């Protein structure tokens, strides 16, 4: 407790005990007072309450009110102390952004949703809400708890005819920060006017609007259980065209790549419309962009490639791209177990349909990769795909490769 805490030695400087959180014993960065008058670091006291504690850690008195009041005076004193000790390598703590207040959130949502309010007033409210939502997950949770999603959906689709309202676009940018419920996703997917409106926004002159539209398409597809409703969305040609175009916007808008991959994968989960992705040259774009992706997005891209390899037109498109097979071969065991499984599955599909792909795979060194895969700790499905591919390509190995490979002689290729 405060009176018994020894001074904290921080890079040779003693931190005054009243600058330290009684819970973590660390220098407070965002001191807040509880109803008992005690001050704690916000993160520590929030964790204390979140784990079910209902008493003040210092006084043990019941917390009748869980409101946290920023202790601005103490925070400024701590900042001044940090500045005074900068010579010892102590950095000034930043002024924390305060969490959104429920009353303010309600007021802003009412201001944005009221059609009787002036346009600029509604637009300003949406922008302030977006700023709060960008600040923290806690703010997003607070905003969402006030029926924000329902209000935002109404605003986004309030003028589906023109598709050019700044108000609609600002509401869309805020809406995609939240996870929609299944019923909310179904309400969008089942309304053809709303789907057509999203397809128009995917071709908007603003890349930000297009990316936000692609993000909402992905959210709705993932959140909709009905296969018929998912097919209704993916059956719109402009949806695939717009998403494929978003994928090509990496250089001008980095967020586009991540959103584009997610949306394309969600669309390709609908079997009957995968050919539309091929028609928009999504296959070529996936190969061209694969090297630019982080782990999670690379896994999703490889899963999409495997899905498209399951249709003849998809196989043809990938075979025609000179980098497809070499890139898939080098991906094995490089990114993750899932990525390896998808790459092996795509190679199996391509090599089953194309002798040229078989030759390309052998030239790219797939023998070594598959042997390593079979003997690795990768998933059983990945190993089965590798064994099937080994069996398929066995007649294509150069004789010297087989003769010189002890691993190949010892590897059992089980029939399937």
UniProtKB/TrEMBL annotation:
<dbReference type="InterPro" id="IPR058678">
    <property type="entry name" value="ARM_PUB"/>
</dbReference>
<dbReference type="InterPro" id="IPR011989">
    <property type="entry name" value="ARM-like"/>
</dbReference>
<dbReference type="Pfam" id="PF25598">
    <property type="entry name" value="ARM_PUB"/>
</dbReference>
<dbReference type="InterPro" id="IPR045210">
    <property type="entry name" value="RING-Ubox_PUB"/>
</dbReference>
<dbReference type="GO" id="GO:0016567">
    <property type="term" value="P:protein ubiquitination"/>
</dbReference>
<dbReference type="InterPro" id="IPR003613">
    <property type="entry name" value="Ubox_domain"/>
</dbReference>
<dbReference type="Pfam" id="PF04564">
    <property type="entry name" value="U-box"/>
</dbReference>
<dbReference type="GO" id="GO:0061630">
    <property type="term" value="F:ubiquitin protein ligase activity"/>
</dbReference>
<comment type="function">
    <text>Functions as an E3 ubiquitin ligase.</text>
</comment>
<dbReference type="InterPro" id="IPR016024">
    <property type="entry name" value="ARM-type_fold"/>
</dbReference>
<dbReference type="InterPro" id="IPR045185">
    <property type="entry name" value="PUB22/23/24-like"/>
</dbReference>
<protein>
    <recommendedName>
        <fullName>U-box domain-containing protein</fullName>
        <ecNumber>2.3.2.27</ecNumber>
    </recommendedName>
</protein>
<comment type="pathway">
    <text>Protein modification; protein ubiquitination.</text>
</comment>
<feature type="domain" description="U-box">
    <location>
        <begin position="14"/>
        <end position="88"/>
    </location>
</feature>
<dbReference type="InterPro" id="IPR013083">
    <property type="entry name" value="Znf_RING/FYVE/PHD"/>
</dbReference>
<keyword id="KW-0833">Ubl conjugation pathway</keyword>
<keyword id="KW-0808">Transferase</keyword>
